[in-house]
Amino acid sequence: MVARKLSSASILAGWAAPCIWLAFIPETGVQAFFGSLGAIYLAACLGVMFRWFWARWFAIGVGWWGAMAGGSLMLMTGISSFLVAFTLSHFAVVVLLHGPAVVGAYEGRSDWREKYRLDERGVARIGGLVTNLGTLLPFAAFYAFFPRGTDTAAPVAALLLGLGTLAVLRMRTWGLFAIAAGGITLASAAGDGVVGLGTILVGALLALSVARFVPDIARFLLPRH
Description:
Order of helices and strands: HHHHHHHHHHH
Largest sheet: none
Structural class: mainly alpha
Distance between the termini: 49 Å
Number of domains: 1
């Protein structure tokens, strides 16, 4: 299990480093994109290293993002050694973080389950949300921060999504509302063409990812008779 943890964390750190470096190169127009992407990788890496209960889910989501993004780029632009390494390294994270021993070291621990009084169903639903966030946030960062003129709605959406994700990882209910608002804001900032369709799709998926919790929130807020 230790070898799997160290290997997956090393891969995530290996991609975090160049993203953070690119975020500090001035006048490129992509500092915010690479900075947010570096933060996502860094959060996944630290989570895996420190065995935070949500880390396996989030890192697997990031792994699926990289595998899908790399595979899509190879279909569009052709196969290159960089894209092969990018795709396979992210898929390796997904593979490395599977298995009963790894699950037991993260979300399988009893301490956080008892703290938040969660049964298996609740754990599975939270895990699904966190994995979705790990996959969708890098796409959201691309659509929000890649050069897009003077539009301000998308960066606001990215801020809402970032704050909402932090809140969800700390098991705060208001994070669900922030993620839904961020997804809707991102979708509303869509332009024309393929990029616009991608923006709408990612925004809608982010908003829908928290829809499964609506009945629970309603039961909590509405008075019981």
